[in-house]
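Reopening: structure tokens for the zinc ion complex, inputs below.
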Amino acid sequence: MVIHKVPSSIQAVFPKREWKIPAEGKTVFLTFDDGPVPGATDFVLNELAKRNQQATFFVVGDNVRKHADLARAVIESAHQIGNHTYHHLKGWKTDLETYLNDVDRCDQILADKLGLETKLFRPPYGQLRPSQAKELLQSKRVIMWDVLSGDYDFDLNDEQVIKGSTEKIDAGSIVVFHDQEKTKERLTRVLPTFLDYLVDRGWKTELL
Ligand SMILES: [Zn+2]
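Re-run output (same inputs, fresh job):
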């Protein structure tokens, strides 16, 4: 089951992690996790460009290694890239040193392939042990979300994904989609509708 909106009670337990961005008016922050993946990331870039919208891509280091050109296209399109670990690790199952090394390795490939430094970090699955969070917060912004599209959950139909994400947005919301293998077909069905909804209702997208 997907809870499309992260309850404020949960957000309050981890106040140093960013769940929403203080914003005035109709501003939202779109994020895409797990790329770059051919057939997904390029599709997203194209749909954003058509509507002149911006997003942040939390990339997996190993995918940047495999598809550096696609990662470069994200930057060249004036979007933003954040670190999502090198191997898409589960924080709760990974010891501190291994986890931090994997985050560093992702930073390293971003520097090597793109000449990029980023302070933005999102933990895969939203999982972080307190020790991991404490270390990472020394040098990174830990970006969570308040609106989960549920695009990866095939117990939900396309309609539910669209409804669940559009209806839960408010000013400063951080919304998560996935540009990955599993979701790339679905993105072609839900993302255009979602983006049109934003544009039609006067929402603006910004970078984190
Ligand atoms: Zn992920």
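Strands lie at 27-33, 56-59, 80-83, 120-121, 141-142, 147-148, 174-178, 204-205. The longest helix spans residues 96-114. Marking as resolved unless the reporter disagrees.
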